[in-house]
Amino acid sequence: xxxxxxxxxxxxxxxxxxxxxxxxxxxxxxxxxxxxxxxxxxxxxxxxxxxxxxxxxxxxxxxxxxxxxxxxxxxxxxxxxxxxxxxxxxxxxxxxxxxxxxxxxxxxxxxxxxxxxxxxxxxxxxxxxxxxxxxxxxxxxxxxxxxxxxxxxxxxxxxxx
Length: 161
Prior knowledge:
161 residues, 2 domains
């Protein structure tokens, strides 16, 4: 059987605590507190919760970016500047939100669809990665950079590599 150290060779220091069945047992507030007291003290709580805690199984995909180098800035954008599906690795992800009512009706456990129906928006500001790299990228995972084209809040991690 694979160990957690083998499954998450790069991100074990950032992983939420798990039980022997690999289920996350550390609450989001406890996780945020632990990370902000340690290596990721510059990360905003909502980004730690949504990017790393909620999506811990995907953390390894982006570890090569160097989480400890990220810096964040919260900005207000006009709606027209917020990029669409072109910035997602899987562009079909946005298609799944074209009919939130149907998505919620199909899955009573889809907390995000139900939240969006109730509140009319995402639960936290969007987070976009901004890199000052130019030219061909030699990253192991495809990272799509937004083309900024009006009023939405976004947090930007900056990666200087």
